[in-house]
Amino acid sequence: MEADELLVRVAGGDQKAFEELYGLVSGPVFGLVRRVVRDPAQSEEVAQEVLLELWRSAGRFDPGRGSALSWILTLAHRRAVDRVRSARAATEREQREGMRAHHPAFDQVAEEVEAGLEREWVRHCLERLTSLQRQSVTLAYYDGYTYREVAEQLSLPLGTVKTRMRDGLTRLRECLGGVA
Amino acid sequence: MSLFGRQSKRDLHSLAAPYALDALEPHERARFEKHLRTCDRCTAEVRALSEDAVRLAWSTAAPAPLAMRDRVLAAVRNTPQEASPLGAAPPRPHHLPAHVWGTEPPPPRRRAPRMRPLFAPLATATAAAALVVASLFAVQATRTQDQLDTARAQSREIANILAAPDARATNERDARGRGIGVIASAKEGRAIVTLSGLGDLPSGRVHQLWLMRPDVQPRSLGLFQGDTPLVTSGMNDDATSLAVTVEPNGGSAQPTSQPIAQLALKSVGFGE
User: Fold this and answer.
1) Is the predicted pLDDT of residue B84 greater than 60, yes or no?
2) Residue B153: CA atoms inside 13 Å, Cβ hemisphere, count?
3) Do B219 and B164 reside in the same domain of the chain?
4) Residue limits of the RNA polymerase sigma-70 region domain (chain A) (predicted)?
């Protein structure tokens, strides 16, 4: 069964459908959260929250507005970003208080070990972006920085970053094209 | 004024890509979402850009930890959905550990609902366990002060168990909906046990909880009082399961009837 149909059943309280949906989406949800959050224990926790949130709020999914998988991964991404930002805010507080110095990791393109076809293809397409497009997109999506923070890190005007993000995503779409 | 208006609108349009990447600050996100409701072009653009962003997500897929599945599915069995009548928010009990979330549903949104970010020290209590507890307190919100005091004392016990690094939750129901839920720390030999769907008892009868171990007589872990969860300690680490029987008031030294519900303890770390 497709995720869309499963999610609609889950909204109706169908636990079996949830189990099936879990099988489909737990890997993508966990992987995405871990990519953004990094810390394994926190990643697991955020992923769990997202999956439970699917159960609780499946009724909010509106099939007319996009696919279930997009909805689910959008939710997962947002929660991961929220977590990593509050963790960063806490780190900054600590730094201000002089408790310890800590510089957040700053690698843009995934250095993942497992190499699925999709992963390789995304990497290939990311490499075909200009460096600024790639960094604008990946610093935001994989590392959870706001576009203002990205602008600061890349020493670019805000408007330029917004344009690079848009162009980067559009070019990705053209490159990723038919590969599902 | 009109120039400013147009400028500001164009600024808003240009936020579509950062929005699709979740790269807006909260106030900008709120402002842009408000704008989206009246801008069909932006909505279409955001939808397309979000689909692109999701492609970036697929490439990060990684197998989730196996134990996570059990925890999530156990929590799902104990968690009401928002739309259900049980989904109404109970009053937030002050004595719950800070990391117990889920006692109220997040504010309504059209899509991609968010919950409050968690700042509490994490790591220990699983979301599953937290949700079991949250559902317990949803029931208890309607009780008298005395009962609440008891519940409060109990909640300290519960918080202790949740704080155990190995705390895990599981739950099982038979075809008739009768079941046992447990949050347990095998290392500390402590557990919180809840019953569901067992129905009303005839007068003069109680539900008694038993610990089952290999080659040993069942040992009583206590009597249930109504639907209050039972907190127990001293659970042997070789325990295999929990069982519930119906006994005369005051309980029995050994079970005098067949169990009406049982729960294997392997998935919460016992018997290994």
Assistant:
1) no
2) 8
3) yes
4) 26-88
Of all residues in chain B, the one with the smallest CA distance to A171 is B52
Residue A87 has a CB neighbour count (10 Å cut-off) of: 18
Nearest-CA residue of chain B relative to A160?
B14
Burial bucket for residue A138 (CB in 10 Å: 0-12, 13-18, 19+):
buried
The answer to whether A88 contacts chain B (CB < 8 Å) is no
The first and second tokens of residue A14, run together, are 């169908």
Which band of pLDDT confidence, cut at 50, 70 and 90, is reported for residue B91? very low
Calpha distance B131→A93 (Å, rounded): 30
Amino acid code (one letter) for A113: V
More confident residue, A53 or A118: A53
* B55/A76 CB distance under 8 A: no
Name the packing angle between helices A68-96 and A3-11 (round to 10°).
80
Which CATH code for domain A3-96? 1.10.1740.10
Q: B63 in a domain, yes or no? A: no
Q: How high is the ipTM of this complex?
A: 0.86
Residue B245 sits in which domain range? 68-272
* Domain annotation covers residue B223: yes
